[in-house]
Each structure stands twice: as structure tokens, then as C-alpha cells.
Design a protein that fits this description.
By secondary structure, the chain is of the alpha/beta class. It is built from 9 helices and 25 strands. It is globular and about 60 Å long. The mean pLDDT is about 95.
């Protein structure tokens, strides 16, 4: 069976891992020019200076090549579904029995008026290197977006420059998808002590020569801006090939696209309008696509949502459903906050913690079981 994989990120590595558990697979990777795969979530650590670039330059393909993987450095131009082949930019056609698209995504950018402020985003190793070079001599760095990456990047900039960093968040609280209101407020108070100033409740309107101007009229001194405002799927090739797309390449519960025997995974894909840009989604879509590309009949199974967070050395986590619970029990000290969420039957359905992850594994094991108050014993 000939399986072709387009793209060279974390999700494609998972696809290859699943494929080469079998002995009857003939696999070809069309990887383009970028080396990899490498751990994008660790890029803020590189910006901070706590790791070096060797972490991102490890050869992760040689083990697959030794098992028979063929690697092509060309770029895929389009997919010919009728003839079941991928047409490359050099005109060659690569036939497939099954095809997996793992083209990933790129940083989203805000189309705002800009009178001269330098603006960066963090998605690739090259981005990280550009950011490091840009930080020399800055006085007023501003990060737009207080999601997981935005907070980690702001923390890294603070560590590297020693300057306070302003972080703009349009929502009324930090991490509304991950933390409850009290946990978010507690996290914010700890971040402020570490040199991050969180500016909530308004989105940026424009970048002047020396400030970020918000929609509500507030103005933040700035000499450099870092946007962390989500990702945009690399779906153009799929669209040009007639594959159904919304914000990304649309897949069904088997990770298959609208084109027969063609699958999409990771940040390039969207399942029921869901495309979170997180590792757990990338790994699960990759697992299912790989198995089904080999003739299987797997379906996507996502565990209850979870997030493990750390910014400025402050750990936090969120597990399960904290939005639809019937009751909540919480405990707080000067450095630590934890909350347990239960349904109407007293079953633990979610948990939040800020300041420590000591109880995370116990809380994970407790989801779906009667609420155990000993989890708040600290």
C-alpha cells in the first residue's frame, strides 16, 4: 500500500510512527524545504534563553528512513484525486493509495494601521531567532493575545530583557477557555508580581509610532509588538484541489476529507468546526488518519479538555468541564488556588489549579468519580 504524507510537523511525525508499526506500508514524505519536525511549544524557552537551537535541529527522520521511508524535498502543488497522485512544483506526479495532509498552519496576523512599530509573531524557529535579535535595547514590549503561547512568550521576553511586558487581552479575563474567573484573577495577580501587566477588555485598534492604541481609547507605550492571536491553517493547496474547507480542511470522524482516501491532520484540519491548534488534537487526528490510511476504521476520540500552563514560573492546569458543573469547592492561599467542579450527582467533572500542579495527576484520575475533598488538602 502506497501512502503519501504531505508536511513535516509534529502531527506528521505521529503519522509516521503509526505507519511504521506495520510491515506492509510503502510511505513517501513530501516535506518541502523546512527541516523538522521540532517541538514548537518549546520555542518560548528558546526565546528566554533556557535552551539552545540544537533542541529543534535533531534528526527525527533517519529512523523512519531506515525502515523504508522515502523523503522528497519538493513542494506539493496540488492533489489530483481522479488519478490519485500529488503533483509537485517541479511537475512530477507522486501516486498514492492513501494520502495524509499535514501542512500545519502559520501565525495569524492583525491587519491594523501601523505607523512604524516593528511587529513579530512566534511560530517557527526562524521567528524565534528574529525575535531574539529584535529584543536588543527594547524598553516597552507589548504582546497582543494572552492565550497560552502569548503568556509564555511574554514571560520569555521579560526573562530575556528584564523589562516589564504589557499583555493585551480582549476578553474580560485571562484564559477564559482554561480557567475559571477566580483562577484567572489569581493567576493575573501572580503574573503582575513577575513583571507582566495584563490589559483586559479591549482589542488593539492601531499601532502608532510609539504606542498600541486600543479600541476603548487606552494607549500603551510600545517600541515593539508581538502578536499571538491564533493560527491560520495552510489549506490553500487543498482548496485548489477541490477539497472542502472552512477555517481549515474539513474532516469527518475518521479524519477523512471530502476527497476519498485523502486525510488531514493537526493544525491543517477542522473537525465539526473544531480546530484548537493544540498538541492533543494534532496527535489524535494523526493517529486516526494513519490507521485509516492503512485500511482501518478508527474514529476520533478526544478526552475531556485539559491544559497545562506555565508562565513566569507559575504553573497552572485545567481539567474537564468547568463550565456546566452543578457545584464548586475551592481553596486559596497566598500562592495557590485550586477548585473542584462536580455535577448534580457529586461526580468530579473538572478541576482548576493555579500556583501548583501537585494534584494534577490525582485530579485526572478522579474525573468521573465521586468528588474527593482530599484533593484540596494543601
Amino acid at each position: 500500500m502506497k501512502i503519501v504524507l504531505i508536511g513535516n510537523g509534529v502531527s506528521s511525525e505521529r503519522v509516521l510512527s503509526e505507519l511504521f508499526k506495520r510491515e506492509d506500508v510503502e510511505a513517501t514524505l513530501i516535506k518541502g524545504e523546512e527541516y523538522g519536525p521540532y517541538p514548537r511549544p518549546r520555542l518560548p524557552e528558546y526565546v528566554k534563553g533556557s535552551i539552545d537551537s540544537s533542541v529543534f535541529k535533531q534528526d527525527k527522520l533517519s529512523s523512519f528512513i531506515s525502515k523504508g521511508l522515502s523523503v522528497m524535498n519538493s513542494m506539493a502543488e496540488r492533489i489530483d484525486g481522479k488519478n490519485k497522485c500529488v503533483v509537485l512544483d517541479d511537475g512530477r506526479a507522486v501516486p498514492y493509495d492513501s494520502l495524509v495532509i499535514a501542512t500545519g498552519a502559520r501565525s495569524n496576523r492583525l491587519a491594523l494601521p501601523n505607523s512604524g512599530l516593528p511587529v513579530y509573531s512566534l511560530r517557527t524557529l526562524e521567528d524565534a531567532e528574529n525575535i531574539i535579535s529584535s529584543l536588543e535595547g527594547v524598553s516597552h514590549p507589548v504582546v497582543i493575545g494572552a492565550g497560552l503561547l502569548g503568556l509564555e512568550l511574554a514571560s520569555a521576553i521579560k526573562e530575556r530583557t528584564g523589562k516589564r511586558v504589557a499583555v493585551v487581552e480582549g476578553a474580560s479575563q485571562l484564559l477564559p477557555k482554561q480557567l475559571d474567573e477566580r483562577g484567572a484573577s489569581f493567576f493575573e495577580s501572580l503574573l503582575k508580581k513577575k513583571g507582566l501587566d495584563i490589559v483586559k477588555g479591549s482589542y488593539p485598534k492601531e499601532y502608532s509610532t510609539s504606542a498600541v492604541v486600543l479600541e476603548d481609547g487606552r494607549s500603551l507605550d510600545a517600541d515593539i509588538v508581538f502578536e499571538s492571536v491564533g493560527i491560520r491553517a495552510n489549506k490553500e493547496m487543498a482548496e485548489a484541489s477541490g477539497i472542502e474547507c472552512d477555517r481549515a480542511i474539513v474532516i469527518d470522524e475518521k479524519a477523512m476529507t471530502s476527497l476519498e482516501d485523502v486525510y488531514a491532520v493537526g493544525d491543517a484540519s477542522s473537525y465539526k468546526g473544531f480546530s484548537p491548534g493544540l498538541v492533543y488534537y494534532a496527535l489524535e487526528t494523526a493517529r486516526v488518519a494513519a490507521l485509516n490510511a492503512c485500511g482501518g476504521s478508527e474514529t476520533l476520540r478526544f478526552n475531556p479538555p485539559s491544559a497545562s500552563i506555565e508562565a513566569s514560573g507559575i504553573p497552572a492546569y485545567s481539567l474537564g468541564d468547568i463550565r456546566n458543573a452543578a457545584s464548586v469547592e475551592s481553596k486559596e492561599t497566598k500562592e495557590r488556588y485550586e477548585a473542584l467542579y462536580a455535577d448534580e450527582n457529586g461526580i468530579l467533572v473538572g478541576a482548576v489549579a493555579v500556583g501548583s500542579r501537585a494534584n494534577m495527576m490525582k485530579a485526572q484520575r478522579g474525573i468521573g468519580k465521586p468528588l474527593d475533598m482530599s484533593l484540596l488538602d494543601f
